[in-house]
């Protein structure tokens, strides 16, 4: 799947058109029911402003919020996003209390030029995800005919479809794959994501380095398998490094995380790396503790002696940091997925921070640096690195699936350029 050949908003004219736009306003809400962090809303402004500037008749925004599982739950209403959006856009935004039905059609059919509508949560309808939960807590499956009608009704709300919700692109939900408008383009947020991943997956500058952390090997098997086909070097750290160390080096890992399921495939992964001439880098020293706690007494351990029973590795040590930094320094493309230690605890955050600082430095020298979503994005934020790297992905699950070599339903559903 070529990401770079998909239709984008720059390829279309929006004058006089009703633009149906799938965004991701799945924002955190505080106890007062207000938006706590507006960044996901802010991220869609370039696309919304572009289509309005071009003279679009209207922008009809659709999104999900939370997991209401097909039931109407007021705490998951998107109404809370309206004041934030109005302030950011500097214009009125009309909230519509459903996302399909005659009232929605009536309001959006022939609006004044430049109108902006935000429709109610898509997931209040079981037809969005295809399944949900009823009032009694039983799992229910959406009726096939009802799903088809829901998709047709959504499609009828616009003349052109713009998809700008990368974080939802790996979900084969109705608003992601079921819009049947002839032109389905990616917005600027989506385009930025696709462009950066295209650089890494389709034509990386070399050496290409992947940095992989996180807890379990079994969760990253497909990711490692696929990346071994395209990278030159790989740093494996975080909790999953201990499974590798125990299997490959027969190192004593004490009470460190061990993934017995993932351990079964470790030797196969190392063998594939050898065949593909990919250089693997593992930690050689460790910061340890006797308990998983922020205020735990920290100890140290070396590869040669292993980690004593009763102790667990929570970060890499200073020698590993130096080795990692040398590897990062020579890379021309870096993709990072998963922290290298328990970065949430200050005394076990040094390995992740050291690597993050090195990645920022590499970016200054022209290296393309991509941070996967989720915990790695949180680490980039914590260490003030967001503006210092090429790209921090907005989609944890979506970016992971792209790097695993999977076809994202939301990307596949976009129109190709003529």
Automatic annotation (TrEMBL):
Residues that coordinate or bind ATP: 220, 313, 344, 373-376
Residues binding substrate: 24-26, 64-67
EC supergroup of this enzyme: transferase
Location(s) in or outside the cell: Cytoplasm
Signal peptide as annotated in the record: none
Record flagged with keyword Nucleotide-binding: yes
Principal location class: cytoplasm
E.C. numbers: 2.7.2.3
Cofactors (names): Mg(2+)
Presence of keyword Metal-binding: yes
Keywords linked to the UniProt accession: ATP-binding, Glycolysis, Kinase, Magnesium, Metal-binding, Nucleotide-binding, Transferase
Any one GO cellular component localisation term in the record: cytosol
GO biological process, one term: glycolytic process
GO molecular function term, any single one: ATP binding
Pfam families, alphabetized: PGK (PF00162)
Family stated for the protein in its record: Belongs to the phosphoglycerate kinase family.
Protein name as annotated: Phosphoglycerate kinase
The species this protein was found in: Spongospora subterranea
